[in-house]
Write a structure and sequence with these properties.
Low-confidence stretches: 32-36, 38-46
Number of domains: 1
Structural class: mainly alpha
Number of strands: 0
Largest sheet: none
Strand content: under 5%
Shape: globular
Helix content: over 70%
Length: about 250
């Protein structure tokens, strides 16, 4: 079984658009949280105005991305993607942490892939290259994250996970999750589970269709758990948006 490129691109658009829309709504609705997000040399008021304007633009751009309006406007579709790429790149460069962390970086890469694929009307091979770019970024992100954890003794011993669960940082932790930090054995097992999954993720490109679905389902469970426990909901949408591209390469 294979996934048609048009279906893969449409699924990526919807998932990516949902993530961008969610981010815009969250930031615009949480004005009190801007003080935590707006760091740098600019005056606070200037930064809030800049951020608010950018989020309004992203909110408006996410709607046609979800609705598929850009597909009917193939001539300006690359311009549409470029606007989102510039906007996302600005967030990655301007901010760090909860706003401009890994989710924005992955969204940026997915948008680059969609931009390349949008030129498939000129040459169909560009559609495949665009989807390949997204799939490669997805696979590499997992593998490199797992490799970094494998080289970190705190992850190997479960200390990193314990520290994260006990922290009072920017993430919203569920109360039951904090109790998991009391079990060293559980933290070690969970840490190794994450490491092995991330290191082994490139194998998804070699698996048959059913194996791909199983691997990607495990990935979705991982991101849904992170969203529920750590509040990393935008990460779920960002990485889920890359999965159709991974499925395409069957």
């Amino acid at each position: 079984m294979t996934l048609e490129p048009a279906i893969a691109i449409r699924a990526i658009q919807i998932l990516l658009g949902a993530g961008i829309l969610l981010q815009a709504i969250e930031v615009l609705a949480t004005r009190s949280g801007h003080a935590l997000l707006c760091m740098g040399n600019r005056p606070y008021s200037y930064t809030v105005q800049w951020l608010t304007a950018k989020m309004l633009v992203r909110l408006l751009l996410s709607i046609p991305l979800i609705g598929g309006l850009s597909q009917t406007l193939s001539v300006i579709e690359p311009v549409f993607y470029m606007a989102l790429i510039i906007s996302t790149g600005g967030l990655v460069l301007r901010f760090d942490g909860p706003l401009g962390g890994g989710s924005d970086s992955m969204m940026f890469q997915a948008l680059v892939g969609l931009l390349i694929a949008s030129f498939g009307v000129v040459n169909p091979i560009l559609t495949r290259i665009g989807l390949g770019w997204i799939a490669a970024q997805s696979v590499l992100s997992y593998f490199l994250a797992g490799l970094a954890k494998l080289r970190n003794n705190n992850w190997l011993t479960g200390i990193a996970l314990q520290t994260l669960l006990r922290s009072n940082g920017p993430y919203v932790l569920l109360a039951p999750a904090r109790s998991l930090a009391t079990s060293q054995a559980l933290c070690v097992a969970a840490s190794w589970g994450v490491i092995l999954f991330e290191i082994g993720f490139p194998a998804v490109l070699l698996l048959p269709w059913d194996g791909k679905l199983a691997m990607l389902s495990a990935g979705m469970f991982f991101h849904i758990a992170n969203a529920a426990i750590l509040g990393l909901n935008r990460f779920m949408w960002a990485w889920a948006a890359t999965y159709p591209a991974v499925l395409y390469f069957n």
